[in-house]
TrEMBL record:
Residue intervals passing through the bilayer: none
GHMP kinase N-terminal domain sequence ranges: 87-171
Residue stretches making up the GHMP kinase C-terminal domain: 248-321
Keyword terms of this UniProt record: ATP-binding, Kinase, Nucleotide-binding, Transferase
Stated name of the protein: Glucuronokinase
Statement: the UniProt record of this protein carries the keyword Glycoprotein: no
Pfam families: GHMP_kinases_C, GHMP_kinases_N
GO molecular function: ATP binding; kinase activity
Domain of life from the UniProt record: Bacteria
């Protein structure tokens, strides 16, 4: 029997990037794109490579473009790291795994390095497959932490819990990463929000504006760890935008998110060095009357539009910047 599992892209609605700094966020899963895992029993444990895992290129320019879009390592290190952390979890929790091996293959339609969390989606889908294969249950509130440490501890990737939480819970989720909660129980407060409460959302992405998340966050992380008050204050204000939006959605005021999203991005620009190319995408979207902010670390923006006429304007204007506009499919 072949086990098939899937995890979806995500977009940070509000509060990012405070999630990596004990803040608060609201995120949505974007089911327009996903990563899938196929896993079946075999005599030996085998990981099937994808084209991006290879080392043969047509030219130096092909290698350059491949590395720019896909990174240096492809997906196999993620698979190895996820398998190791799954085994560690089982051993730490006295779960005896049967002597069974498997072959695993991954696929992904998530645009790479544009802030939609393609790497973590692969690991989430992998954990789901391993749980099915070995008949192991991992509490959903614990699973995002396991996915995150697969990347941070094993591969040295700078990552926060937000992406993994929304990809494990799916839909729309409010997250409070209070430091005391995280330290005491290993996870924050995660509350599902009915997607029907959300306003009309668009997502636009341009792979030419991609950023590697760890590099984007490294300077701010160092300043936060040094206790620079201006960084701490701004991240606190960004987190508050998520809390305000959570209250607004529960009280039936989705239109309040328009200004909150704009403020979220403007605050981000106070402590992050946002390239002009990304700012132009934000400003062009806002010129249509839509709100706009980063959905992740760069390359993808998210915002609210009023009606189909405004959505059509977004299609036309953002196309000038080679950005594709979609309506996120959220369940």
């Amino acid at each position: 029997m072949i086990i098939e599992t899937r995890a979806y892209a995500r977009a940070g609605l509000l509060g990012n990037p405070s999630d990596g700094f004990f803040g608060k966020t609201i995120s949505i899963s974007v089911r327009n794109f996903g990563a899938s895992i196929s896993l079946y029993e075999s005599p030996e444990l085998h990981i099937e490579p994808e084209p991006q895992d290879g080392s043969t290129f047509r030219s130096v320019f092909h290698l350059r473009d491949s590395v720019s879009m896909l990174g240096y390592n492809g997906g196999i290190p993620l698979i190895k790291a996820g398998i190791k952390k799954f085994a560690d979890y089982c051993e730490d929790n006295n779960i005896k795994l049967p002597n069974r091996n498997f072959t695993v293959r991954y696929r992904s339609s998530i645009p790479r390095q544009v802030g939609m969390s393609g790497s973590s989606a692969i690991v989430v889908a992998l954990f789901r497959a391993l749980m099915q294969f070995y008949k192991v249950e991992i509490p959903i509130e614990i699973l995002p932490q396991l996915v995150m440490v697969s990347e941070t501890e094993e591969l040295g990737i700078a990552a926060g819990l937000q992406d993994r939480v929304i990809q494990c819970y799916e839909g729309c989720v409010y997250m409070d990463f209070d430091k005391t909660l995280i330290q005491n129980q290993g996870y924050g407060l995660y509350e599902r929000i009915d997607p029907a409460l959300l306003p009309k959302l668009y997502v636009a992405y341009n792979t030419n504006l991609s950023k590697v998340s760890g590099k984007v966050h490294s300077d701010v992380r160092a300043r936060f760890d040094r206790g620079e008050q201006d960084v701490i204050d701004v991240l606190g204000q960004i987190a508050q935008k998520a809390k305000d939006a959570h209250i607004a959605l529960k009280e039936g005021r989705p239109d309040d998110l328009h200004e909150l999203m704009n403020q979220n991005f403007d605050l981000r620009c106070q402590i992050y060095n946002v390239p002009d190319s990304n700012k132009k995408l934000i400003n062009e979207a806002r010129s249509c009357g839509a709100s706009a902010k980063f959905a992740g670390s760069g390359g993808t923006i998210i915002g609210i539009y009023k009606d189909d006429d405004m959505l059509n304007q977004l299609f036309v204007k953002l196309k000038k910047y080679n950005a594709r506009v979609i309506k996120p499919f959220v369940i």
